[in-house]
Amino acid sequence: MTAVTDSYFSAIIGRLETLRETLAEPMAKAANVICTAARADRRVYVFGTGHSHMLAEEVHYRAGGLAFTIPVLVGSAMLHEGAVISSVYERTEGLIQPIFERYGMQPGDVLIIASNSGVNAAPIEAADYGRKIGATVIAITSLAYSTAIANGRRRLADIADIVFDNGLPPGDALIDLPGGNFRVGPASTAIGATVLNAIFAEVAAELCKDGDPPVYLSANMPGAKEINQQLVKKYRPRNPHL
Fold it and tell me: Which PANTHER family does the protein's record reference (predicted)?
């Protein structure tokens, strides 16, 4: 392993070690909220724009994942329909509400919003929409980043009911290149996915007290077809992406 790759691994591992302690309380709160929602047959929605949308896909129809999670996918604000224009869309006001109305969010649901910068219009309006509906809003964001660039704008962290500060610096990247002009090695996706999967693992363990939790199996595992079909049948009516 070279010095650069070693530095990146060390940076990720070090941050995860720190977050295991600093996020213990909000993670416990989030797990409790999600368990309550699951037991009331509510849903957990996950939303992000740009690269943050990958966290919504991370928990959707995932082997070892919970079936009541729903990704909120906005093609124009992701990357595959045009990466450059997606940066425009996520900063444009007024686009989010009609998209969210498609999903039928209800009081008692949970909305997880991933936004590393935490100030763009899309995540802010999504948080406002979730609060208006009566959902619990959970944010995954960088407080250092949003504080540095807010310039009087509202921050996602100021709206959400529960905030996960991923501890990352403004700009996301961790490794300085020779010369000091560029940084590489973004970390928000790796850290965000770890935090989410840890929370949902905790939720699944708690739901085991009620019987078998609604967990998808990998399609190649014994019994997966039958179990997954039952889960899809139950959760498809409120999940347009199944």
Answer: PHOSPHOHEPTOSE ISOMERASE, SEDOHEPTULOSE 7-PHOSPHATE ISOMERASE / DNAA INITIATOR-ASSOCIATING FACTOR FOR REPLICATION INITIATION
